[in-house]
Amino acid sequence: MRLERPVLTARWTELLVLNFRVPHELLARLAPPGTEPDLYDGQAYISIVGFRFHGTRLFGLPIPGHTRFEEINLRYYVRRFIDGRPRRGVVFVKEIAPRRAIGLTANWLYNENYITRPMRANIQIANTRLALGDTIKYAWRTKTFPLPYKERQEEASSTNPLPFREKPGEGSAFRQSLRGRPLSHRWNHLSARIAAPLKLPTRGSLEEFIIENYWGYVRGRDGRTREYQVAHDPWCVAPADDVEWNCDLAATYDAPFAEHLAAQPASALVANGSAIKLFRGRCI
Predict the structure, then answer these.
(1) Distance, C-alpha 77 to centroid of its chain
(2) 113 in a domain, yes or no?
(3) How many angstroms separate the CA atoms of 10 and 28, rounded?
(4) Which strand (E) or helix (H) includes residue 84?
(5) What would the pLDDT profile of 234-255 be if each residue is shown by its tens digit?
(6) Neighbours of 123 (CB within 10 A)
(7) What is the pTM of this model?
(8) Which of these, 67, 127, 126, lies nearest to 98 by C-alpha position?
């Protein structure tokens, strides 16, 4: 039994997970040393995950103003072998949170790539627990430089337009001048509706592959890989439909992931979440 004191405790709830196919060669190039891409039926995936933190404590202490907040992260899946048995986990590419102290702490403790953006959530739940027909939406705000009208027209008529174009009237909350260029503040979002009752994932299913990960891996500042445990009870899941993925990719994600996030999600699911314990990382 683990006796080590967790670094962070919280409840993670109302998880919305959008999954995208990527070439496994991409993850093989990026996976931290000592790990390899984890595949489902020979296919590699990356995921956008939106969820809520509740009751957050750092080393047992609540941080005023930082106990409840939203997060959106981009992650991929890896494994490493211990005595011939695979240990499955995730690598976080970028995490978005609404308060700067969250990112500073995570970047310091785990060398993660947190950025701070205004965020909001809209969770429509009929009863006290997630159920069929409930909806989940997470949003964050980015700053973009709109194209001149002529370039917008040319891009719109291109044979290869960006897939998630800003809709008329969307995202211009206000404008200001920055070095003589108009700066647009735009809200991006992911949302979906729960399409079936929640239950534990079927053994060997894609849902189990995506959700049942209890380890995190990160390349440290010294280039060595660190492994940390995320302990929690198994989560119930359900498929999601009415999926919306509206993202200014250029303002949010870098190559080589942005181009793969331009596709429609290969699948979407919702998980109820649970209490979690996050432990300190160790070099492998």
Answers:
(1) 12
(2) yes
(3) 32
(4) none
(5) 999 999 999 999 999 988 998 8
(6) 15
(7) 0.83
(8) 67
